[in-house]
Write a structure and sequence with these properties.
Blueprint lengths: L3 H16 L3 E3 L7 E2 L5 E4 L16 E2 L10 H4 L3 E10 L7 E7 L2 E6 L2 E6 L19 E2 L6 E10 L18 E7 H39 L4 H24 L4 H29 L6 H19 L4 H27 L5 H24 L4 E2 L2 E2 L8 H137 L7 H36 L7 E3 L1 H19 L6 E5 L7 E3 L1 H24 L8 E10 L2 E8 L29 H13 L2 E7 L3 E9 L1
Parallel strand pairs: 1-5, 15-17
Antiparallel strand pairs: 2-11, 3-4, 3-5, 5-10, 6-9, 6-11, 7-8, 7-10, 12-13, 14-16, 17-18, 18-20, 19-20
Helix pairs in contact: 3-4, 3-9, 4-5, 5-6, 5-7, 6-7, 7-8, 8-9, 9-10, 9-11, 11-12, 12-13
Length: 731
Amino acid sequence: MRLLLPVLLILCFSALAQKSEFFTIDSIPKQGVLLDKGWKYQEGDNMQWAKPDFNDSGWASVDPLKEITSYPEILGSTVFWLRLEVDVTQKSPRPLGLAINQAGASEIYVNGILVHEFGTFDTDPRNVKAYDPIEHPIFIPFDSAGHYILAVRYAIQPDLRYTRIFAYNKNRVFYAKVVDLVKTSNTDRAVTLYKFGLDIVTLGFYLMLFVLHFAYIIYQRKNRIQWLLTIYFSIGACIRVFKIIGQNESFLAERFIYLNLSNICLAISAVCLSIIIYRMARMRFDIYLYLVWFLQFIYCIVSYGTSAEDWQTKLLLLFNIYNLAIVIRVVRLGIKKGIKGFQTVLYGIFIAILGLLVLSTGFQFLNYGHSSTGLNELRLGVSTYLIDFIALIGGISIPVGLSLFMGIQSRETNLALSKQLNENEMLKNKAIEQEQEKQQILESQKEMLEIQVNERTAQLNQSLENLKATQNQLIQSEKLASLGELTAGIAHEIQNPLNFVNNFSELSNELIDEVLEERKKDEEERDESLENEILADLKQNLTKIHHHGKRASNIIRGMLQHSRKSSDVKELTDINALCDEYLRLSYHGLRAKDKSFNASFETHFDPSLPKTEVITQDIGRVILNLINNAFYAVNEKRKKGEPGYIPTVTVSTLLTDSKHFQIKIQDNGLGIPEHIKEKIFQPFFTTKPSGQGTGLGLSLAYDIITKGHGGTLEVNSTEGAGADFIIQIPI
């Protein structure tokens, strides 16, 4: 039994060894060694699974080279592991690398040691970010002959949509090649530049054509076809920009966005191309064109809403072939119409279709694509460079055809213009001959016209002088009218102090007589207290006589100032007193002219308003004019006999801030109609009957306030409810 036990153990180990699968690497060819066999898969997460001594015999076999969408169980998991046992039979003289494509986030372990991490790996699915290295090689420590365990800790980014549009990669679970690190790194840079260069050449063509046609728009802004071509070329450039970014973007979420943006731009470009061809052929839009728009719209929605479906590329090819078929139909109709240049567009479309078919055939059947391990070896011995060249020519053929069409059209336009210019030259020569004949006639008439012009100019100058004189007379009439109203008010106002002077003078004479009689009496009969009392009354009377005399003098001085021409010299003036004085003068002046006139007035003066430097005569004229207008408005409304109506004019002052004060004159009269409110400050505009106004009062008031004092004169009015005139002047 002791001899049998070792034999049984050896047989068991041999049996177990036979069940294990190894991937053997004995040499590294130019294209590298694709790790396509022996992979095992286990859902879950355990760091012990990275160790080389872990027994993975119970794990399921898996082919990680397939697209991740073909493994629903993988897409439904959060974290899983892949393991592969690799036997390296001999030491490589050069460092080895691993070129990888994948569709998730991963950590790469070799014999339990973490050698690289791709993307953002996390056990919380919300933090996972899928990352595709795009076969950029990384170092892997297969540096000597031996047995290695390659373990991949893998996480899926939830709700991630994959795409195959414009992409060389197939969203594989885990595609890995063991390569010569140095050579493959150099090849990777060369292939990346090669792919980038192909797109840059196409992008350069589109940008060049965009700039050319945009410059053309500057001189022909109304040319709709040029505008459409400029938009078409700009969208074509956007397609290449998003395609370049998307194909070189390793984070799959961003790659999906950029490649779908490029796809959407492709759909818009197809729609724009169809519109351009219809415009060039001078055809109305029809159901075929609308169907192109509809199909492209549906394709964009389907492309953005699905994930890495193989039929998407076929659907794109089908829709674009339909779009090109409609374009070819319209081009043929344009050729039948005899529109020159459409042949070049047709040739460009055929070349584009050829490029599209060659590229699609290469992707579907010839294993076309570029990777860091070099240019792919296509089936049937077809050259990758040939496909690239045909695809490049096809990508720029339609834009070049459209530009050539516009060039041919420009040439035809230039020929027509040259013909027209020749005809114009002939007409010009005839016109010159006729002009020479007319010139002789004009010379004879010129002297006569100069005489007539001089006579008319003299008449116009005389008319202008008369107009200026009339204007000055009207302005003077306005001032005289204002002076007449003021004089009537002064006459009434000055009567009161004169009456007081007369009354107190008579009373003083009587008091003097009483004093003289008292002094004639004997000293025993004289009453000194009575004499003192009479003298005191006499002194008081003289004081009142002096007060009312000064009041009359001030009124006369105001009248003289108003009648004089303004001196334009500003003086410190009590605005409250000025407003009060002119309010009363206006009221009494109107009462003197019209005995039936009657109205009430109110004052609301700001006691904090300081004396202010203004041109007193001018401000007085403005206040008097506005108050006269207010009394006129309330009197006209009173004449209509509205029951319960009390005509009222209110004058108020207000210190609005430290730099401005305000004078407001309000009335509850007829108001100003809305349609004439903007005209009231215009010279010679008046709403009063003929003979009652010159139309210059408000115009002069506006000029005095705005130009003479740097203030504002505004009006707020509601028809039938009154008007407010607001003067605001800086202190």
